Amino acid sequence: MARCTYTVPDKSxxxxxxxxxxxCNQTYISYFWNAYGFQGNKDYWDDGFGxxxxxxTSKPLARAFNGCYLLTYSAQDYQNESWNSPILNWGRRYxxxxxxxxxxxxxxxxxxxxxxxxxxxxxxxxxxxxxxPGRAETLMHESRHAGGKPHNATFPKGSVFGDGKGGADSNxxxxxxxxxxxxxxxxxxxxGARTTSAMRARARQRGNxxxxxAFATHPGFSI
Amino acid sequence: MEPVIHSADTPxxxxxxxxxxxxxxxxxxxxxxxxxxxxxALIVEAINLMGGAGPCAEENYQRAVDRLARNAGAVxxxxxEEYERLDASQYLDRWxxxxxxxxxxxxxxxxxxxxxxxxxxPEERGVDLHSFSTLAEEVMIRTTAVDVLTGxxxxxxxxxxxxxxxxxxxxxxxxxxAAVQGYLEHGGEGARETLLKHLPERDQHLIxxxxxxxxxxxxxxxxxxLVCRDSRDDLPSHDLGVADGSNxxxxxxxxxxxx
Lengths: 223, 259
Known about the structure:
The complex is a heterodimer. Chain A is an alpha+beta fold. Chain A is 45% helix and 12% strand. In chain A, the strands form 2 sheets. Chain A has a 3-stranded mixed sheet with strand order 2-4-3. In chain A, a hairpin with a 2-residue loop joins strand 3 and strand 4 (119-122). In chain A, helix 1 (16-23) packs across helix 4 (60-73) and helix 8 (177-191) packs antiparallel against helix 9 (197-213). The radius of gyration of chain A is 17 Å and the shape is globular. Chain B is 45% helix and 3% strand. Chain B has 9 helices and 2 strands. The longest helix of chain B is centred in the middle third of the chain and has 21 residues, at 134-154. Chain B is globular, with a radius of gyration of 25 Å. The model of chain B is unreliable at 243-259 (pLDDT under 50). Chains A and B meet through strand 1, helix 1, helix 2, helix 3 and helix 4 of A and strand 1, helix 1, helix 2, helix 4 and helix 6 of B. Strand 1 of chain A pairs parallel with strand 1 (19-25) of chain B, so a sheet runs across the interface.
């Protein structure tokens, strides 16, 4: 067992303070817990991670729920989760189908997430360095891995993710984890509902970063 | 082998889960301790509302931006000063300050943006870059700074256009790409030719990277690569948690009720 500490500032642009009032409802808590892989993993969400205090947005569980709210309700017509609709609509369904166990751990202080089979571990970076749209992007990215699609290329020259290192996708058409994350962010920028223009702008910046840096062959377009 | 049965209170030799201790800190910003605390409080409020959610999120955020816009010049100066004071690790907070400059569209931001884009990028501090890259965070701050220029160029600032051209040679690909796109958009009729003169041959392909609508790019094919196919879920409405203090269903203690 690892022990970790984290200092949380009282206000920031992440939005966690404001989501708190939204997700603090037993109906949502029960839905998110059952739908997104928390169920059966209480041991990974207690001991300071928030199970006992799940509306407290200083703690990981409420911050994970904030990402789940965004993932669930960011399409204007969120009731439509048809596979023929935009990824903004069916992203929540994809995550629900592909993550069987979602577990929180300390990590090394900067790590975000990792996937093994259909189990996804999320670390302190997921809760405290990612903004809320970024958490939804991470769940999409890891769900794609859980669905059996590994990275298949090395990062391009100059990539912020590690010039020449493994972990990239070959191209946009590979439909890998980076494409899923970037496309989700792109739709959130273009059509995200129940959010602010600032968070949509943030999603655009992150989406462009992924497009510019995570494909061995640049797709040739940007957001 | 017989199955091992554990009762809830069976002693366990080891656990695989981790333990976390959270401490709260004061706001990372020092505006309210400065010589314009009222303006500083409005800035902090706007930053806090950036991440809002729910049906009123955008309206509340825009109202906060509008309050800042009445003193846009002074606010931009405060934002630039605060940026320099923040710890390097406050990536999202630093981004928020620059994003407010995008919103305020005041030419008092030009010197700051020029300085920011002229600095060498800090060294990468992350360990697992696929997971978290500090350089990626720094780049997003700078591509947002290019958006400050783009907005001012749109409003007619010739200096903003000049600065975009100056920074098409930035060391980072994404910053170069953003500056090239901004210059193409606002550099006038001869923008493409001017860029071809300024850009080294290896970067001339940047001119062909277009900003496009998400509806025009290849989409992910839904319903493939699934671990398990779900049945229809009982999705609650999006607005249950718009708290008015009277929601009987609001969680009171001990949650979730699932395991």
